[in-house]
Amino acid sequence: MSLGSLILKLQQNYQHGLGTAYYRDIVRNKILSSLPVKGNTSKECEIHVLTSASDWLNLVWTLKSFYHFSQRQYALCIHDDGTLTEENITTLQYHFPEARIINRKQADEKVLPLLSSYPHCLEFRKTNHLSPKVFDFAAYLQSDRLLLLDSDILFFKEPTELLNRIEKPEYKFNSLNADVQSAYTVDPETVKNHLGFHLADRINSGLGLIHKDSLNFAWIEEFLSLPNIIGHFWRIEQTIYALCSSRFGVELLPLAYDVHLEGSINGSPSRHYVGKIRHLMYREGICHLVKNRFLEEIK
User: Fold this and answer.
1) Segment 109-125, tens digit of pLDDT
2) Quick check: 195 and 118 in contact, CB under 8 A?
3) Can you tell me the distance from the alpha carbon of 216 to that of 248, in angstroms, rounded to the nearest whole number?
4) How far apart are CA 41 and CA 267, in angstroms?
């Protein structure tokens, strides 16, 4: 490695300070010494997550903090984006022994034929690496209710209102966390003019309750025909969830679940550490959990 490359690597590793690097590179690995989470077979709701070789360790923190503080045993399905190694999969299976882990080849063989009658959906599934978060979650869902969960979320106490909405049989809305602002590839006026319904503001597809009936492939085929909808590679997946939820019926989760780029945990049950604040997942979130004896409690 050249001196220039070494300097660049050091700058990248330590750009958010030594504390962040310590919790990211040393403390984060300690969760792999914790006990497996067993008994997650309840089909009252099923958790679906999409992960990668770069995110799977964060996902272990996400899932273990959720299961610990929620004290629920929702079934779990982990989807490989195609980059997980055999070692990654073995480790995930050890920590979540009842989980279904779906590798990308296996998913392609199941999902692509399901989309053969939906050409826009099929093309999107083939070309967007986040598209399994829509189609594969729907195809593999074995419950009427899905807990949508990203691998950059940590839980700090019981997410009471989220659980209430999941477990209340008469609750018929999708319910997701609110983004800082609307981040879609279509505007509400286009949706209203072409589809005849209102596109809800600020839906973030990182955390929430999704009803199986709202992930309707015929709807998504219609949505993908909107003018210029194929835009920013990650906003399009979020846009599809927003469109499905808006047509089906949606409510945002309470303020405490909102994505926020400023401030701290401040008593919230969870925090979504989106890209701009990913470093805080280590320096703030994991640090907070460790200082409150989370690792000792899950051993």
Assistant:
1) 999 999 999 999 999 99
2) no
3) 10
4) 30
Q: How far is CA 35 from CA 22, 60, 98, 150, 272, in A?
A: 23, 12, 14, 22, 24
Domain of 103, CATH number, reads: 3.90.550.10
Residues β-bridged to residue 108: none
Tell me how many domains the chain contains. Answer: 1
**What does the DSSP 8-state code read for residue 53?**
T
Is residue 95 within 8 Å of 118, Cβ to Cβ? no
Q: Residue 7: what pLDDT?
A: 40
Strand pairing report for 174-178 and 203-211: antiparallel
Q: What is the pLDDT confidence band of residue 247, given thresholds at 50, 70 and 90? A: very high
pTM of the model: 0.94
Closest to 229 measured CA to CA, from 94, 123, 133: 123
Spatial distance between the Cα atoms of 172 and 216, rounded to a whole number of angstroms: 16
Whole-angstrom distance, CA of residue 270 vs CA of residue 280: 13
Inter-residue contact 45 to 76 (CB < 8 Å) = no
The residue among 206, 201, 212, 209 whose CA lies nearest residue 246 is 201
At residue 38, the 3 state secondary structure works out as coil
**H or E stretch at 87:** helix 86-95
Output the six-digit token pair for 277. Answer: 């604040």
Give the tokens for residue 213: 């009936």
**Domain residue limits at 74:** 3-297
pLDDT, tens digit, 9 for 90 and up, residues 253-278: 999 999 999 999 999 999 999 999 99
DSSP tag of 185: S
Burial 248-267 (b: 16+ CB within 10 A, else e): bebebbbebbbbbeeeebee
